[in-house]
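Standup notes
- DV: blocked on the single-chain target, sequence here:
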Amino acid sequence: GTPQKYDPTFKGPIYDRGCTDVVCCILLVLAIAGYVVVGIVAWTHGDPRKVIYPTDSRGQFCGQQGTANKWVLPGAPLCSRSTSPPPPPLLVSQICVSKCPDRYLTYLGAYSSRTPADLQYYRQFCVPEFGDLSKPPIEVLKDKECPAMIIPSTPLARRCLPAIQAKKGVIMVGNETTYDDGQGRRRNVTELLEGARNANVVLEMRQLAMKIFEDYTVSWYWIIIGLVIAMVASLIFIVLLRYLAGIMVWVMIVLVILVLGYGIFHCYLEYAKLKGEAGSDVSLKDLGFQTDLRVYLHLRQTWLAFMIILCVVEVVVILLLIFLRKRILIAIALIKEASRAVGHIMMSLLFPLCTFFLLCLCIAYWASTAVFLSTSNEAVYKVFNETACQFSGQTCKPETFNTSNVTKLCPDAQCLFAFYGGETAYHKYLIVLQFFNVFMFFWLANFVIALGQVTLAGAFASYYWAFKKPDDMPAFPLFSAFGRALRYHTGSLAFGSLILAIIQVIRVILEYLDHRLKAADNKFAKFLLSCLKCCFWCLEKFIKFLNRNAYIMIAVYGTNFCTSARNAFSLLMRNIIRVAVLDKVTDFLFFLGKLLIVGSVGILAFFFFTQRIKLVQDTAPPLNYYWVPILTVIVGSYLIAHGFFSVYGMCVDTLFLCFLEDLERNDGSAEKPYFMSPDLKKLLKKTNKGQPEA
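- DV (later): unblocked, structure below
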């Protein structure tokens, strides 16, 4: 009869296992609960309108329902600064208006005008309570009910900024070079330039953004077609690796050898050509250092040095090729096997979309919580005045300000909105809550990535440890691996992602300190900070490498994080040469694949959108900037190729660790047969005794 299915003595991905790192799992649940509480508190106290909408001098939002200065007029109400004579005095008020002023006009001029329409026009730029048009202008200006003058302005970011323009090199505002400041003096419009220095830049950026948006509206479906082409090309490349991986690797190796050989030949030709020329026999030592590097190319000694270096590199490459040829063949065989595994688990290519969706949720929750926390402050009012006053700059309350002693001692003082802040315990600990928000974002984002890695590793490990491939595989290997990861190993994933999150938060703190120290002259502090940044960058890279392999061992054995990390690291160190060879071979193939996919799709998009393909010349949409869809297709193609190759890379790493475990644990006997593919067994001259070949 047929032999019994091999039952391994260790726990594989399709066998029973227990929960690991339960303490970390509980800690993660508590942290998430605390994160939810922080979010609720932030959403209760925060108000994003403080970021979106401007406020008037009373702290009320311009154009919002339920405020005293809400005017139901056409268009979105904008916030206009009253322009008291520049340079501005201590008191500068903001008033909500329905539209920006479009002409030069002073209040005194509007009041004394024989045309009532001027005063009615000016009234819309006064405080909402102002209604007594017969009130003397001196009293109106003293009470700050209306600005002293208005100038032609342009709406920008819900604010009115001077409509500055340049005509024949002359700075003008409303076709004028001077204006009346409302106090009987003529001023040059260049005095307004500082207050609206960035207005034209922002306006041009907005026009650029509108043109880019128009390009997207007419080319979005062609962009989608380009991304679909990139997706199909990535899939085809992964499938072809099963047949072309060996050819591509050996062709690359031969090309490297040939290029080095040509370099040696070229150096010899240059060395021989310079023989007998004047000055070519000067030594590098006698010449010394020269800023013009072309001088060295006229020396024979330079080309002799180049030739010797290239000869050494050529010999090293050939020796490595001779001694590592078997390991290169193993790497190629593993890459081919990974292509077969991906072919049997095609759903794995779509799994990064799940990880991407979860990451988007983390980013959205973090961003919204950060915005609500940053807008949780309360409106702070302070005393503003134009003359000397002992209460100037002190906090005040608008409700009781008019009955306080401040107005008696400083008649021209006003209680106006200054900024958002607060003195309660909640406001004092806002920075702590923001820090917790950042920390939880890193922890959850790393957890989501770890969950994706363990899921893929479990699915591909179930392929490797199936004695009869693919008959012994689970019915739904990807979903089975996902369920095992969440049910048994949430704690281990939380542990690994917690370590990485702590390191990343430290790096963020170091970047913040580096930003604050840029203006400082303490060179030792800058040097120390640079060293710390470099060390923690290296540490983060190492922890990511260790976590990735630890997650593979968790998926295979079901052990806790520390045990898996130790076993994975020891296993890789015992096979360090194989690790290095496989890593470089896969890096080359992935680089080649991304270059081919992104380059081909990008070139196709360039020829299409620039209407250089005659067959579809009339189909290409008219564009303001043809580089907009081209760059979008290129970036999108890279992200798609990176997503596909990340799955493929995880498959290669998983099969590699399983292959090393297979070699160390099994000997090909009936009790311990090899699970590797027939190609690998043939390459290593291994056979299974007493068991039929898989």
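- Follow-up: The longest helix spans residues 199-273.
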